[in-house]
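CO-FOLDING WORKSHEET

Operator: S.A.
Ligand of interest: S-adenosylmethionine
Run index: 257
Mode: holo prediction, single chain
Checklist:
[x] sequence pasted
[x] SMILES validated
[ ] output reviewed
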Amino acid sequence: MPNTYEEFVKAFHPKSGLDLKFYKQNQMQRRILSFMSSHGHQTYPLFIKALDVDPVLYDAFFKHLTINVSQFFRDANQWKTLRETVIPLLLKAKNPLKLWSAGCSSGQEPYSLAITMMEYFTSTKFTVLGTDIDVNVLQQAKDGLYKQNDFASTPPEFLQKYFTPSDSGYQIKDPVKRLVTFQRQNLLTDRFQPGYDFIACRNVVIYFTDEAKEMLYKKFTDALRPGGILFTGSTEHLFGMNNLGLKPVSSFFYQKL
Ligand SMILES: C[S@@+](CC[C@H](N)C(=O)[O-])C[C@H]1O[C@@H](n2cnc3c(N)ncnc32)[C@H](O)[C@@H]1O
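OUTPUT RECEIVED:
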């Protein structure tokens, strides 16, 4: 039974597929201990036993660890750069486009990509893949039902055009839903398909160790076609991008040479 953080990490990995050794210890340990204490668990051995027998506790804990906060068109200025500069640049070289939202949470980001393409690039064919490690958020993404606060950065006309209001929130319309495929994937351990024109990976690596980030950005670069573009989160500047073979197109957008 795990008595230390390291032992807990080892015991949790086979259970969840999530290897916490790729995540920064300080932040993760703090999150685990705060969850344990708010759920009345004082020690790692008792907590890991409780996770074994209580699926509701397990799901809540997994959600707490992976941090699923998202929004449609999160960081509106960057979506403006995407439609005015980045997508036109990609289309100069290739049409159709293969787009991927990695760490997509409950689907707001891949659906925002699909809406952008439908709205501004009407004659372009494209596919959008959304992946995440958490099956519960992926189910929410497939259901496509959202709350008002998911739309704080969304132009109101998009809400009207692409969503149907219901008693329980806003349902994404079928033509958008049909354009996005969702899959479970662990970015740290699973292999990536090659040939993407565009990869968005935003607000996912915040808790990854520097080694894990480096490995992941290398995998993303390999998965992009030459000229393809990586979109990162507002706090996630790429250091050593020359070594990776990427050059900045604009803040938070990096193109493979
Ligand atoms: C804060 S959300 C970001 C959502 C969206 N990209 C955005 O910026 O609004 C982070 C997501 O990364 C996912 N995640 C964390 N570690 C992961 C991993 N190793 N593989 C795949 N997804 C992971 C979490 O499950 C969570 O849904």
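REVIEW:
The longest helix spans residues 76-93.
The chain is about 45% helix and 20% strand.
[x] output reviewed
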